[in-house]
From TrEMBL:
Pfam families: CusF_Ec. It comes from Tardiphaga robiniae. This is Copper-binding protein. InterPro entries: CusF_Ec (IPR021647), CusF_sf (IPR042230). Residues 1-24 form the signal peptide. Coiled coil: none annotated. The keyword Oxidoreductase does not apply. The keyword Signal applies. Keywords: Signal.
Length: 99
């Protein structure tokens, strides 16, 4: 019985980890709100996601850029679609496409 409990707990934790990893790679949309090249970060005003009647308040998030060369291509107000994940404890953009 103890082995079955351990196996069930491991399966549950594995499923939770896979769900978190899949969510982290989901594409998001937003616009560039700030570029801080010395810190290596950009701030993105996230587009509202959700259903009709959801809270319309937009939020901003700071991200590190995996490829520092992107700083040259980005401007304040650019609309972007991106994916991110946590790398070394920091939210990091892993892919980015300007609209």
């Amino acid at each position: 019985m103890k082995i079955a409990t351990s196996v069930s707990a491991f399966a549950l934790l594995s499923a939770a980890a896979l769900t978190t990893a899949a969510t982290a790679q989901q594409a998001q949309e937003g616009s560039i709100a700030n570029i801080d090249e010395p810190k290596g970060t950009i701030t993105i005003l996230l587009a509202p996601s959700g259903t009709v009647g959801a809270n319309g308040a937009n939020s901003t998030q700071d991200f590190r850029l995996q490829d520092g060369l992107l700083f040259n291509a980005l401007r304040y107000g650019d609309k972007v679609t991106f994916t991110s994940s946590v790398v070394n404890g920091a939210k990091t953009i892993t892919s980015l496409r300007k609209e």
